[in-house]
């Protein structure tokens, strides 16, 4: 884990109080602010519909194709305003999103999927081949399946393809949306291990949206908890993990040990965060 | 050899040649459908428009001359030049690229993420608009198109077959040229979509728009590229049909002949468009030859559709269509 002093040295991505509206009427984010330090793993946590995916899409600017727009606030990458750029420009700047639910190109082979990741680069064949090797190094399973159509690979393999494809763009920051979705616990562990080693040995910065609070807080350095389109709590992962409210509401634990969710005192959360 | 068999062989060959022309039109549909999921009803009109533009440029016709003359009381019709065929074809291609850009900019950019049926309706609108636009631009009269392609009976085939069977086959030179060109076109398109970066991006866009966006592929660029390719295919089809039967309104109706071809070959397969075209071409000619006389003829009008219907029932994705991948 990075020490606190180092994380504060350089902020790569800064989201300031953004509001996002879909279809001109549906207000989804009501003022979200966050900072992503270079070389860190930052987690966005929260339940369904909290606004995690929307936040990531606001950054990568995939919102536009879904009739969403940032109506207030600003998004800065390396101090530069990026919210009017196309996803294409952002990928060139080193920000790439791995979408929720994998989104592989089903009819392309695994290797072709990876190659599409290098679309924005003007790199030569040798360089791209070397990067392919690098990806296969992290995901040996993909090398075995390189000639299979991605649509016929398993959920875990597709998640690997999606991450590998993003790596092929040689990014600086990877926006990783719900990597655990629909995967067996062991696979989730495996994917997060790879994310961690990519972060530590290759220096990739991650902004991670995850419902699985438990896993995410074990691997992330810093966490933001979203609820209803607002950040309700943030702090170093370690602190969040030990916070009694997080324990109770997100990790299903309390001072008296594990509890049934029926007994969870939801009124307390309301009182505290929504007033 | 019995006479009937020899005639049937000739019919077969002519069917193949007709099939190539169907395939050329179907190819344009496949390209756009594959990359954007749009069934482009306007593909036939694009062929007509391309042929009209080609004739206009070659003959040095002034575009919108009727309109200009009516508005300003002038009498201009021609620039007074005759351009060589190759130059005209290149200029026409430039017009088709411009058209591709305009169509995307003015129509489809505003319809991102809409239902397929809405996109389809938009192409119907586009088809009728372009039909009228072509008329205003180049005039509605039937035009002769001659880019120097060989025409008329191929004497070599005629003489050889006469030597073999005592009966010379009538094969049009133009059909042979069309076959060769279509073959080259298909091979080039397959190589492009399978082995180049832009081709791969095109297939990626076809699979998943959002994911393509997320890796930095510009949908706009890909769509303009695909519409330009379809415009090029339309131009080739327009040249072939236009040379054969003159450039006229009925050219746009060949789009309807391409429909059964697509159902046979599969909407998403480039080789499928070709095989489908050949099957329909040969099928309808042989059917007309063998069964037609028994039931009063004119079977060519409906044969293709009945065949397509059978395919829809028994193999909805067509012969070569992409298997619908469904994981459970």
Automatic annotation (TrEMBL), chain A:
Biological process terms in GO annotation: L-amino acid transport
PROSITE patterns: ABC_TRANSPORTER_2
Domain called ABC transporter: residue spans: 13-253
Gene3D superfamilies: P-loop containing nucleotide triphosphate hydrolases
SUPFAM superfamilies listed in its UniProt record: P-loop containing nucleoside triphosphate hydrolases
Annotated GO MF terms: ATP binding; ATP hydrolysis activity; branched-chain amino acid transmembrane transporter activity
Keywords, ordered alphabetically: Amino-acid transport, ATP-binding, Nucleotide-binding, Transport
CDD domains on file: ABC_TM1139_LivF_branched
One Pfam family recorded for the sequence: ABC_tran
Keyword Transmembrane: no
Record carries keyword Transport: yes
Coiled coil region boundaries: none
Similarity annotation: Belongs to the ABC transporter superfamily.
Annotated protein name in UniProt: Amino acid/amide ABC transporter ATP-binding protein 2, HAAT family
Automatic annotation (TrEMBL), chain B:
GO biological process, one term: amino acid transport
CDD domains (alphabetical): TM_PBP1_LivH_like
Transmembrane portions of the chain: 12-32, 38-58, 79-104, 116-134, 176-195, 215-241, 261-282
Protein keywords: Amino-acid transport, Cell membrane, Membrane, Transmembrane, Transmembrane helix, Transport
Superkingdom of origin organism: Bacteria
Principal location: membrane
Membrane topology: Multi-pass membrane protein
Subcellular localization: Cell membrane
GO cellular component, one term: plasma membrane
A GO molecular-function descriptor: transmembrane transporter activity
Any Pfam family the entry gives: BPD_transp_2
Similarity-based family: Belongs to the binding-protein-dependent transport system permease family. LivHM subfamily.
Name under which the protein is recorded: Amino acid/amide ABC transporter membrane protein 1, HAAT family
UniProt lineage: Bacteria, Pseudomonadati, Pseudomonadota, Alphaproteobacteria, Rhodobacterales
């Amino acid at each position: 884990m990075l020490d606190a002093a180092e994380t504060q040295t350089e902020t790569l991505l800064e989201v300031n109080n953004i509001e996002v509206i879909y279809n001109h009427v549906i207000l989804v984010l009501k003022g979200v602010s966050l900072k992503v330090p270079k070389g860190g793993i930052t987690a966005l946590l929260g339940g369904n519909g909290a606004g995690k995916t929307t936040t990531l899409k606001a950054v990568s600017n995939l919102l536009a194709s879904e009739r969403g727009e940032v109506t207030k606030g600003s998004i800065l990458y390396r101090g530069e305003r990026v919210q009017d750029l196309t996803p294409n420009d952002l990928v060139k700047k080193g920000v790439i999103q791995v979408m929720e639910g994998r989104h592989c190109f089903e009819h392309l082979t695994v290797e072709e999927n990876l190659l599409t990741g290098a679309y924005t680069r003007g790199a030569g064949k040798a360089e791209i081949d070397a990067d392919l090797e690098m990806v296969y190094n992290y995901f040996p399973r993909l090398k075995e399946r390189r000639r299979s159509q991605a649509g016929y690979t398993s959920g875990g393999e597709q998640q690997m393809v999606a991450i590998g494809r993003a790596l092929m763009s040689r990014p600086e920051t990877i926006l990783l949306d719900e990597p655990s979705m629909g995967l067996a616990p062991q696979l989730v562990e495996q994917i997060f291990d790879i994310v961690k080693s990519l972060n530590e040995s290759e220096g990739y910065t991650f902004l991670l949206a995850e419902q699985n609070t438990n896993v995410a807080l074990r691997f992330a350095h810093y966490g933001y908890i979203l609820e209803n389109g607002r950040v309700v709590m943030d702090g170093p992962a370690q602190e969040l993990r030990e916070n009694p409210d997080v324990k109770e509401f997100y990790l299903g634990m309390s001072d008296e040990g594990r509890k049934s969710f029926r007994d969870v005192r939801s009124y307390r959360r309301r009182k505290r965060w929504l007033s | 050899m019995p006479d009937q068999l020899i005639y049937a062989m000739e019919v077969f060959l002519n069917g193949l040649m007709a099939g190539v022309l169907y395939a050329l039109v179907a190819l344009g549909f496949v390209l756009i459908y594959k990359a954007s999921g749009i069934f482009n009803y306007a593909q036939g009109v694009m062929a007509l428009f391309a042929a009209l533009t080609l004739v206009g440029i070659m003959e040095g016709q002034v575009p919108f001359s009727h309109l200009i003359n009516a508005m300003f009381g002038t009498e201009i019709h021609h620039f007074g030049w005759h351009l060589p065929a190759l130059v005209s074809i290149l200029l026409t291609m430039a017009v088709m690229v411009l058209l591709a850009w305009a169509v995307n900019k003015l129509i489809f950019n505003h319809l991102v993420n809409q239902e397929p049926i809405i996109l389809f309706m938009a192409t119907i609108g586009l088809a009728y608009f372009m039909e009228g636009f072509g008329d205003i631009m180049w005039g509605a009269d039937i035009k002769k198109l001659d880019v120097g392609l060989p025409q008329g009976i191929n004497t070599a085939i005629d003489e050889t077959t006469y030597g073999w069977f005592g009966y010379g086959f009538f094969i049009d030179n133009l059909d042979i040229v069309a076959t060769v060109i279509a073959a080259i076109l298909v091979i080039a398109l397959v190589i492009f979509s399978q082995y180049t970066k832009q081709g791969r991006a095109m297939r990626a866009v076809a699979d998943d728009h959002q994911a393509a966006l997320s890796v930095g592929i510009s949908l706009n660029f890909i769509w303009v590229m695909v519409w330009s390719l379809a415009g090029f295919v339309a131009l080739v089809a327009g040249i072939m049909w236009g040379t054969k039967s003159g450039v006229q309104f009925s050219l746009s109706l060949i789009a309807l002949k391409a429909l059964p071809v697509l159902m046979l070959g599969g909407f998403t397969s480039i080789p499928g468009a070709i095989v489908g075209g050949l099957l329909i071409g040969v099928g309808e000619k042989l059917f007309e030859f063998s069964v037609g006389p028994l039931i009063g003829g004119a079977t060519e009008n409906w044969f293709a559709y009945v065949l397509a219907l059978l395919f829809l029932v028994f193999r909805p994705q067509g012969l070569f269509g992409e298997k619908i991948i469904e994981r459970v």
